[in-house]
Amino acid sequence: MQAWTQERFSYTGKYYQLRDVGVTPKPFQKPHPPIYMAATTAETFPVAGRTGRHLFVGVRRSSVEGVKQSVAIYRQAWREAGHPGQGDVTLRLPVYVGSTRAQAIAEAETSTVQYYRRLGENLRRSVGRSGTAASEDRARMAEELANVAYETLLRDWVVYGTPAEVTERLQQLIDELDLSGVILEMNAGGLIPAERVLNSLRLFGEQVVPQFR
Asked: Nearest Cα to 93, choosing from 158, 151, 145?
């Protein structure tokens, strides 16, 4: 931020030291472009709020309900720090569209289940590398994801269905979380064949996107 807002600056940190340097060109936006921060742990949401960073949050380590709680904590910290507004929130989550609900659910099942169970395994491996509270949180989530049922993912973690169903659910999330944007994971797990992903994307572009214009 100093580099963006000052002609020349110095910085002394743990890993980097800079002496009387300047960065050009300066940003067009003044005083600087909006800064976004990705948050995944309980500790990072209030940090993002206190420092006035806009938020990227994903339905990965936490269900939609967990995201709602985290966003509330973020916005409370934002307000308590005296920042104007309430901070932009962009939500990343798996979305898959089919001509029928049964088609969408069936085509995405294997890939989606593997995706979340792999996340659980990665979390399990990282337990103990951070503080006690963070380790306990990771261990709890790792256990939950290791045994998660597809029905639970469909209810609480992903948005799959017909264009009308996906539209309705996304609108609900936009309203409940006052979202500024949504990032779509169209192939959570990476195992859905390309032609099916393209069909899902086509249905989304032709029948879902127009509902939000």
From this structure: 158
